Amino acid sequence: MKLFVVLCTLFVLNASAYVVKSRDDLLQFRNECVSELEIPENLVEQYKKWQYPNDSVTQCYLKCVFVKFGFFDTASGFNVENIHQQLVGSQGEANHDDAVHATIESCVDNNEQGSNACEWAYRGATCFIKNNLQLVQRSVAPSA
Ligand SMILES: *[C@@H]1O[C@H](CO)[C@@H](O)[C@H](O)[C@H]1NC(C)=O
């Protein structure tokens, strides 16, 4: 019985653990979202430069990528823990009291204004990318 409880606990902990994504994952998510949403080439070129114009196509693209990362979900919104863990990397520990956590948190909202999911994801994602661009880029940089 004890073993059963331990195994269940491990399973639950494990199920909620975020797996840090690699550069390959990012490139794969980008390709999947580009083809799912039929993003025109000129916009793709901008995304590769971390430029995200405020249009409905780009809003839905960022939502798509954030959903694939496990950063956003249409029902529950942003997952600050997962975003933080991605920035810290698989070796690091995301300390929920630190400044990075606070900057991520400052960018997310619960969509009190009732925007559609694409706008909601875009609002948080662009804020977060702008505030943490270097960390974001480093977290998915080609490994040295
Ligand atoms: C995007 O544009 C809309 C319409 O002009 C505006 O209401 C919204 O605040 C903009 N979003 C961001 C994140 O700048």
From TrEMBL:
Keywords: Disulfide bond, Olfaction, Secreted, Sensory transduction, Signal, Transport. The keyword Transmembrane does not apply. GO terms for molecular function: odorant binding. InterPro entries: PBP/GOBP, PBP_GOBP_sf. SUPFAM superfamilies: Insect pheromone/odorant-binding proteins. GO terms for cellular component: extracellular space. GO terms for biological process: sensory perception of smell. It is found in: Secreted. SMART domains: PhBP (SM00708). The keyword Signal applies. Residues 1-17 form the signal peptide. It comes from the Eukaryota. Its main location: secreted. Belongs to the PBP/GOBP family. Present in the aqueous fluid surrounding olfactory sensory dendrites and are thought to aid in the capture and transport of hydrophobic odorants into and through this fluid. This is General odorant-binding protein 99a-like. It comes from Musca domestica. The lineage of its organism: Eukaryota, Metazoa, Ecdysozoa, Arthropoda, Hexapoda.
